[in-house]
Amino acid sequence: MNRRTFLKTAGVGSVSVAAGCTSQPEKTIYALVQAPDDTVTGKALWYASTCRECPAGCGVLARSREGRVVKVEGNPLHPINQGRLCMRGQAALQAIYHPERLDTPQLKENGEWRALSWPAAEGLLQEKTRAAAGAGAGRVRVLTEVIGESLTALFGEALDQWQSPPPLVFEPFAYEALKTANRMAFGVDGLVSYHLDQADLLVCLGADFLETWLSPVEYARQFKAMHALQANRKGFFAHIAPCQSLTAANADLWLACHPASEGAVALGLIRKALESGRGQSLPAPLRVSLTTASAPYTPEKVAHLADIPADAFDRLAARLLAAKAPLVLGTATAGSGAADVAANLAANLLNRVLDPELTRIDFAHRHRVETAAPRAEVLDFFKRLSPDTTDVLLLNNVNPVFALPGAGIAEGLGQPGLFVVSTSNFMDETTLLADLVLPVRMPLEGWDEYGGKRALISGLQPAMGSLTAAPGLGDVILRAAFGADPPFPDYQGYLQARLSAQGIVDGERQWVEFLQRGGRFDLPAAPARAPLPAEVPIAFEPVPVAAASLVLVAAPSIRFFDGRGANRPWLCEIPDPLTKVAWQTPLLAHPDTLASHALRHADVVAVRSAHGTLEAPVYETVGVRPGVLAMAIGQGHSAYGRYAQDEGVNPLGLLPPEADAVSGGPVFAAGDVLLTPTGRQMPLAHTDGSRIQHGRKIALTTPLQAAAHDDAHPPKAGLTMADFPLTLPLPEGYDPKRDAYPPHDHADYRWSMVVDLDRCIGCGACSAACYAENNIGVVGAQRILEGREMAWLRIERYLDPQDERKVIFLPMMCQHCDNAPCEAVCPVYAPHHSKEGLNNQIYNRCIGTRFCSQNCPYKVRRFNWFTWQWPRPLNLQLNPDVTARSKGVMEKCSFCIQRIKAAHGTAKNENRGIRDGEIQPACLQTCPTGALSFGNLMDSQSRVRQMVMDRRAYQVMGYLNTKPAVIYLRKVVQEI
Amino acid sequence: MPAERYVMGLFSDENQAAAVAADLPKTPWKLQRVHSPIPSQRLAHALKVKKSKVGWFTLAGGIIGFFAGFLLAIFTAMRWELMVSGKPVVSLVPFFIVGFEFTILFAVFGNVIGLITQTNLPDFGDFKHYDARCSGTHFGILATCAEDGQAELEAYFRQQGGEVRVFEA
Amino acid sequence: MSELTYATIDQTILQTLEKPRPGYWLIVAVLAGGILLGAACWLYQIFVGIGVGGQNNPVAWGIYLVNFVFWVGIAHSGTLISAILHLFRAGWRNPIARAAETMTVFAVLTAGLFPFVHLGRVWAVYYMLPYPNQRTLWPNFQSPLMFDVVAISTYLTVSSLFWYTGMLPDLATVRDRATGLRKKIFTLISLGWTGKHEQWRHYTRGYLFFAALATPLVISVHSVVSWDFALGVVPGWHTTIFAPYFVAGAIHSGLAMVLTLMIPLRRIFNYEKIITVAVLENVAKTIILTGMIVGFAYATEFFIAWYSFNTIEIEVFRYRMFGDYRVGFWIMVVCNTLIPLLFFSKKIRTSIGWLFGLSLLINVGMWFERFVIIITSVARDFIPHAWGLYAPTAIEFGIMIGSFCLFFFLFLLFVKHLPSVSMAEIKETLHEGAPHAG
Question: Can you identify the CATH homologous superfamily of domain C6-429?
């Protein structure tokens, strides 16, 4: 455990015990006059916990100030995310402090909600369940999201008490097709994990592993481990899918195939592989059946079925067969039925052909989301749901009414005589239909355990004083099931006992260490996988869609996942990585598609499928193939609080409600979609002024060959945009021939950031972390339309004008120039150059002339046009170390100066200098791919100083001679 | 001299007035002053007025202003020595503009002070022997004479073509 | 003007100070209403935030600064006419000098309001004043905005003093013709001026120095205003031509405004004999000159942008011509450079109607010149991802209307209460030895 982490987590849950477990909500949680013994007012405490925003189960460290969590960061010790988080993880706080979060139980009496005390509510639950149990077997049902083993076990025991079957686990994205394929190809009924980092070539049939697929943060890290430039080499990544997801945008090759034709492509590749003599070691029957199954898929047939260029396919095949360590991934999180099973099966088999030992597939650490029931089961559950069979239905943090429109869920829940209990903290579509709402503690407030993968277990502990009097879900269940004399006083006790019984945590000392580290990650792995099946039933009917009819594809969003993120202001405010549209849900369509329907960008269209209809603005992009429409899942809520309600639209309503027969999974695509113009236009709240760079020196790329092979003679330096040399913000960066003024020195440190564009995947986690760390205002769609968004760090997305399918992302923040144009123009010194090279901005001094912003070539300064609001209790999330700005002042990225100051303090106390890498600005800290580096340029040994020596190093608009301290490394591109 | 008389000759013509003004010193009467509605070169010539010293005030003001401007800018920059845009804390080029504007401002102040002190305005003392026409249509030449010389003086003015106004002592 | 005499001059000009008709007060009241409207808009903005205007990122400067530059521009020809032409002994400037100077003073006052309106935190505006304080915090004299503070306040002070000094003899004239309260007031403000030769002796000298100082000042002030932009890095702003270009533009707009004001004035006050067509003609001729200078400046900007081979410069100027704000650009070109050429025709520059109409158009054109310069440049600067558009809101227009009302309100009060033409200077220019009525 590295030192920083130890310091961070030294404050073992004892505050949680002191402050966290009071039954009374603390009205003034931030004014801690008498601090608990281990709290020092003004000093942050860090609690290790686990992120529950999606089933991946990343480890987090919650930063607690005076009993309230103000920031979450990845837990560096956690094997899944290794200290990084995605934007959804960062935004978890906004659920806890959400203004519409329920603070007391609610009981529905003849259509009216009535607040209940907790004892009364629990009493009611007890009475109902008891009655149900008395009435017969199986009359209490539980539908839950994916939960940890302990809570599952507790549910099991409780349901035993009520003589009812174990809980049904519902996840909108349950990877049925992938599971089916794994069962068929690997004999594993679950979700294996992958070692992308060990591959040198990645072929992906749509899996959006940078956004939502299985464990995005983990796979993003692994992806860059294989795909970033190292030792003059980088892995190759080909993506085959009808729509360009963020993952596809990061691919070296994106083949926009027909929907549902991915399987055909994979089979074509299998055919090529077998032809080239691969797969000899495969069991004979399998090899035979493979040969026969893949025989029809000649390159021509594949090219025809998938409608992709034949030569591109051939080159891909050749590259694949030449690869030393190829890895093939399956289809997207939101699959599309039967074709999906085919594709995933083909992918798995291709893996077996290319690498019979499947060395890059990990059967021991399977993803926990595999415990989710197939969609068919869930639909069946609701079909059978009736007062005759069920009395009490407990819904744990699921929103089927939103996730399964058209499946008659609402009717099912509405049945008289059925007592529906929801444990959600928000009045979402489903909770609205419940009879009793028990807003139990949220993950960061209570005790629990969750293992995102097998062979590891990750702890949750109260990281803050609770805002409500709510007990944890576990406590509620314990009391409800075992009444007056529960086997354990509370769920924490249950948890601790269970873990020690399993030998995971033995005794108090290990328990403390468990909490400190955030879990046990070294559990004995499951026995080696069962032998791979020798025979695989292969029955492919890849059904290519007739080009004539339109297909709508619904894709989970990196921002909202399955929709649970839609009520977090940050996630709405931070624009979609590819469209750069915030708050709204546009319908992505190809220019040809629009032309054929006489539509223009931002026209509002009525989209009609066999199952539903909706209206949305169209977004013109070549990121989808002609004939395909794409829309992000997550918005379009009819309830769920002010930030979610009536923002955007929900494409799920257009999809077939029934599950696919083969895999029992949902179908996230709808065929024969009709577009009818409404004649209306809807201005899109996008944050990009132009999609292309107009040939300017902003986000640069370099071919792999150039990056790899040293060209002896460096380009001649000149004064134009093209040939202006790299001028470091150091005395050596000055040259009398270029500079009118003499160089200036800095005191010991010259802070600088290096951004490796080859590592940036444009996910926007940095931006979210920046919002969280620096109290940045959320302005809403209207203000974004007016051009008033406040992001200090924005991801600029540029398309290649030659081929708009080529995308490059560039994080843009204050460049902390040595000759900052913003400084001299201010009449009151509000911005000025600090002795450590920072471009300071003094809010109290600013009078709002806005000249600095006008004169900033990078337009990274943000003005407070109004006093932005944090509806209570969102204001409790504000970082006490950073001023909250009011109307009329300019603000911008400060390189997280509060963290720099803190490091200065620590270093001074320890009577040393600040170590390289000791300071981690919020953006850098959370970046899943490590694209950002921060440090002292004056230290010749520092990491940043080494990196700026890279031949890829350049400065955005360097020829303005502002000498930016943010140095970018060109993205390395490759073709096949 | 006992009981002096103030007599004003009012001329509607600038030339006549100038001639009288030039001629009067040769007579026994004492020329007090000449009121005119316009700044008249001829009169000034006839009266052989010396060059005004206002300019010296203006110059002094200008010089003070120039240094005041520069010193203000330099002094204030030295207080915190904040560096902006990589320029030296004391960068004289931009400060020149401050120096220049202050030069003009103070020069004008000097000029005004000069005017006030030289013409010693405001001064409401002259109205005793003043004719309103002098600010509109006429050139008024005010002379004094002994009680007995008054008639001749009046005659002199009339003969020169002017009207006469006698002020009671 | 042979038929003019001292007496008729006094009579013509003094009768303008007689009791105004009710219509006058009506107009004054309407203008006062406009001022209140603007004030209300400003108050609303102060309480809610600058966001009630249309400014945004990247276009953080809107029509507040457009109006600022516009009014400062108007302010210029006043001093030009009274000071520079005085130095050149151009007699034809005398009839319009007074009104032009007044225009200057009021225009600077109006312009001076806009930096305040523009500020995000106007309540902290005193940070810009170099006042001693215990934290020894001072303004940054390297900032073009501080140049502005110094230059504009100097200009306001100097032009007011110049205006008052020039008016002194006339105030005495009014005093001598007035009765009752008015006499008392004018006795006071004319400081006991009697026009005795001792006073004239210093006065003429002092006035000469005033003119000599005002001339470089007026040029420096608009140069400084232009440097608010030229000292920035923004393409379309960062160019060496700006100082002379802005000065010429300022005089251009100022002369146009002089015509706009003078033509109704001479009509209403029967100044035809004093402000003769010849005078207006001379103004028109000068406008041809300034118009050509401005046109040449436009052309030079475009040529340099193209010749620089700098893609960013080129894009900004292409955008000006054909981009979202092209209408404004073409209004600017036509009104400021082509329209003035019509004055080459004697018929047009001697026709009151034409003069008035065209002067209005030039005013419009000059307003749009500032709009085009300020808005289009930042809307399209270095980072394409950050490009954005700006459109003024009702609040901004409300404040703009208020500013115009304020200017005309002040001017209207002036013409009925102070001599709007300098009597002394007109008399000075009368033909020597002409027979005078006694």
Answer: Formate dehydrogenase/DMSO reductase domain (1.20.1630.10)
Per-domain residue ranges of chain C: 6-429
Residue B139 φ/ψ, nearest 5 degrees: -100, 120
Chains touching A (at least 3 CB pairs under 8 A) are: B, C
How high is the ipTM of this complex? 0.92
User: Would you state the structure tokens that stand for residue A108, as one six-digit string?
Assistant: 């529905």
> C78-95: per-residue pLDDT in tens?
888 888 888 887 778 888
Distances (CA, A) of B60 to A47, B101, B103, B104, C421: 73, 15, 10, 11, 33
Contact A935, A943 (CB under 8 A): yes
pLDDT tens readout for residues A436-471: 999 999 999 999 999 999 989 999 999 988 788 899
**Residue A36 preceded by cis peptide, ω within 30:** no
Q: B73 and B111, same structural domain?
A: yes
Of B80, B101, B119, the last residue of a domain is: B119
Confirm or reject contact between B82 and chain A (CB < 8 A): yes
* Alpha helices by DSSP H, A355-434: 375-384, 400-403, 409-414
Angle, helix C242-268 to helix C277-308, in steps of 10 degrees:
160
H runs (alpha helix) in C119-194: 144-177, 180-189
Check if the beta carbon of residue A693 is closer than 8 Å to that of residue C312: no
- Gap between the Cα atoms of A38 and A45, Å rounded: 9
Element (H, E) at A227: helix A216-227
> What is the spatial distance between Cα A118 and Cα A446, in angstroms, rounded to a whole number?
16
| Contacting residues for C80 by C-beta, under 8 A, at least 6 apart | C218, C251, C254
pLDDT of res. A544: 54
Look up the CATH number of the domain holding residue B9: 3.30.70
Tally Cβ neighbours within 10 Å of residue C46. 18
In this structure, the answer to whether residues B72 and B85 fall within a common structural domain is yes
pLDDT digits (tens, 9 = 90+) for A202-217: 999 999 999 999 999 9
Tell me the C-alpha distance between B31 and B8, whole Å.
10
Q: Is the pLDDT of residue A32 over 60?
A: no
pLDDT over 90, % of chain A = 81
Identify the H or E element spanning A47. strand A45-50
DSSP code per residue over A239-300:
EE-SB--HHHHT-SEEE-PPTT-HHHHHHHHHHHHHHTTTTTTS-HHHHHHHHHHHTT--HH
DSSP assignment of A16-40: IIIIIT-SSPPTTTT--SS--TT--
Task: Count structural domains, chain B.
Answer: 2
- Nearest residue on chain A to B90, judged by CA atoms? A741
Position A28 pLDDT exceeds 50: no
Check residue A884 and report its DSSP letter.
Answer: P
What residues of chain C, 191 to 220, have a C-beta less than 8 Å from chain B? 191-206, 209-210, 213, 216-217, 220
- Domain with B81 in it: 54-119
3-state helix/strand/coil string of C180-237: HHHHHHHHHHCCCCCCEHHHHHHHHHHHHHHHHHHHHHHHHHHHHHHHHHHCCCCCCC
Q: Which of B85, B88, B91 is facing A819, going by the closest CB pair? A: B85
At B141, the amino acid letter reads: I
Q: Does C129 touch chain B (CB under 8 A)?
A: no
The answer to whether residues B44 and B75 belong to one domain is no
Domain co-membership, B106 together with B163: no
Distance of alpha carbon B56 from alpha carbon C87, whole angstroms: 19
**CA atoms of A44 and A929, how far apart (whole Å):** 27
Q: Where are the extended beta strands (E) located within chain B?
A: 4-11, 30-35, 139-146, 163-167
- Here the tokens at position A268 are 């074509």
Residue B58 and residue B110 in one domain: yes
Q: Do B115 and B132 fall into the same domain?
A: no
| Residue-wise pLDDT tens digits, A486-500 | 889 899 999 999 999
> Which chains sit next to B, with 3 or more Cβ pairs under 8 A?
A, C
